[in-house]
Amino acid sequence: xxxxxxxxxxxxxxxxxxxxxxxxxxxxxxxxxxxxxxxxxxxxxxxxxxxxxxxxxxxxxxxxxxxxxxxxxxxxxxxxxxxxxxxxxxxxxxxxxxxxxxxxxxxxxxxxxxxxxxxxxxxxxxxxxxxxxxxxxxxxxxxxxxxxxxxxxxxxxxxxxxxxxxxxxxxxxx
Length: 174
Description:
It contains 5 helices and 6 strands; from the N terminus they run H-E-E-H-H-E-H-E-E-H-E. It is of the alpha/beta class. Helix 1 packs across helix 3.
């Protein structure tokens, strides 16, 4: 392991790993560290890491001066028919199992797309801007999809939460 990789690993363990675990990833580790560019991989829920990758990069740059960029390793992209099949399977699960439950909160979740096994979802209605949206995603939706879709790499929320006009739990209620 290079000196840079060792320093980044220590920084991850010390200050970043607890917040990554809290978001639903089992762990995050250094896959490569070369010329200041660090490539990380997340076990468990990579989709929990993607939204905070910018914060992780900022923390690593502050803790390890040799870091110039941080990337997240992802699975290779599937064919368009595989992505289409995964999107359709995810839609069917969301419509049958998830949407009826969150309809009680005036919400709905839709598949916005699939790329490289990553399922992008958008929360609508009472879920858009809800202060518990992240909990719903990581503890409700993601485990159901992972259990039924082993080819899924991760789940990414692409919702513009700031644009929500009637969140079920407003941010002030946090």
